[in-house]
Amino acid sequence: MNGIELKTFNTFGIPAKAKELHFIKDEGELKDFYGLEANQYYILGSGSNILIVSDINAIILKNEIKGKEIIHEDDNHVIVRIGGGEVWHEFVLWTIEKGFSGIENLSLIPGTVGAAPVQNIGAYGVEMDELFVRCEGIHLQFGKAISMNKEACEFKYRDSIFKNSLKGKIFITRVHFKLNKKCVPRLDYGDIRKVLMTKNIVEPTASDISNAIIQIRKSKLPDPIVLGNAGSFFKNPIISKELFVQLNDRFPDIPHYEVNELKVKLPAGWLIEKCGWKGKREGDAGCHDKQALVLVNYNSASGDQILRFAHSIIDSVLLHFGICLEMEVNIWK
Q1: Is 46 helix (H, G, I), strand (E, B) or coil?
Q2: What is the pTM for the complete model shown?
Q3: Does the active-site annotation cover 328?
Q4: Cα–Cα distance list, 4 to 43, 55, 59, 205, 253 (Å)
Q5: Over its length of 333 residues, how does the chain's per-residue pLDDT go in tens digits?
Q6: 14 by DSSP, 3-state: which?
Q7: Any catalytic annotation for residue 158?
Q8: Treating both helix axes as pointing N-terminal to C-terminal, what angle do 88-97 and 206-220 enclose, rounded to 10 degrees?
Q9: Residue 100: which residues within 8 A CB-CB, separation 6 or more?
Q10: Residue 25 to residue 22: CA distance in whole angstroms
Q11: Of 26, 190, 229, 295, which is least packed with CB atoms within 10 Å of its CB?
Q12: What is the pLDDT of residues 226-239, one digit of tens each?
């Protein structure tokens, strides 16, 4: 297909063109693209973590490889092998239905399973790399099947080797996760306990936790079908304890989460809101009125308009707090 319109393939709803679009349903369909340089194609999941600033003069390879299977289990754990084109939230619900636990805190995160290791997704106190075992994929330039364990993926906070030295080079076909057979609740982040208390749930199941998080996310985050967005636009900054002490003197109410003895994580949404951006709008680009971490396309904003709006926020937070926010969303220029 040529001259493909991408508006319906990105959750910001940005109109843009692509050279070609191919739906990849199994590994064999990738053979036609072996030997291409990374700039000749773009690997797309659900388009929920990309801001398109210009047309994509490349071949789009959309991951639609499906499949969910249990490949190993013992008394306490299971290892599951999941197709990279599976919808992440549907995978989470499948694990709960099967009686497994571990990723319920990652409920309702948009995107596909194959994109999860790229971004090293996380939410509500749980990071994907805690459960990750390995991923399978194809190195398109060399036409070679690969299998990478956790160490090889070089996971960091919202980061991985797939966003750095292997950026755009690996088509992730399947991902393996190690899950629990018994629910081990993780309730100390955000409003999870509060929501469970309103339902008089004292010993929550994985399903209870998932439902609570779905409720929280729906109350704060806009539906991209209704209002174009890519979820959290910025990473929560991790700063030194020394800088945090200085900021805490100025802002005693600053929320924070200790990473270790030397580092503290701050909620980017709080920083953005304190700078007056929450609910602010410039043309059709804006900052959501319920969650400052989310930038939105109210109707017909271009990718460039949203990007300029994002840079204005970055400049403002840097001036006010001395912290440089990093974008979590991938930018196609």
Answers
A1: coil
A2: 0.92
A3: yes
A4: 15, 10, 10, 44, 49
A5: 458 999 999 999 999 999 999 999 999 999 999 999 888 999 999 999 999 999 999 999 999 999 999 999 999 999 999 999 999 999 999 999 999 999 999 999 999 999 999 999 999 999 999 999 999 999 999 999 999 999 999 999 999 999 999 999 999 999 999 999 999 999 988 799 999 999 999 999 999 999 999 999 999 999 999 999 999 999 999 999 999 999 999 999 999 989 899 999 999 999 999 999 999 999 999 999 999 999 999 999 999 999 999 999 999 999 999 999 999 999 998
A6: coil
A7: yes
A8: 150
A9: 78, 80, 179, 180, 181, 206
A10: 9
A11: 26
A12: 999 999 999 999 99
Q: Decide: 16 and 7 in contact? Cβ < 8 Å.
A: yes
**Measuring CA to CA, how many Å separate 310 from each of 126, 228, 235?**
26, 15, 12
Distance from C-alpha of 64 to C-alpha of 53, rounded to nearest angstrom: 24
Residue 20, C-beta contacts closer than 8 angstroms, at least 6 positions apart? 1, 2, 4, 59, 60
CA torsion angle 82 115 118 328 (round to 10): -150
- Distance (Å, rounded) from C-alpha 52 to C-alpha 83? 26
Token readout for 59 is 């071949």
Cα angle 149, 51, 257; round to 5: 60
For the record, the structure tokens of 62 come out as: 């959309």
pLDDT tens-place string over residues 262-284: 999 999 999 999 999 999 999 99
Residue 78, beta-bridge partner list = 73, 179
Type of residue at 333: K
Measuring CA to CA, which residue among 27, 121, 43, 18 is closest to residue 83? 27
Residue where the block lists tokens 């707090």: 321
Find the catalytic residue in 46, 101, 210, 232: 232
- List the catalytic residue out of 158, 160, 210, 302: 158
Task: State the Cα–Cα distance between residues 176 and 79, nearest whole angstrom.
Answer: 7
> Using alpha carbons only, how large is the chain's radius of gyration in Å?
20
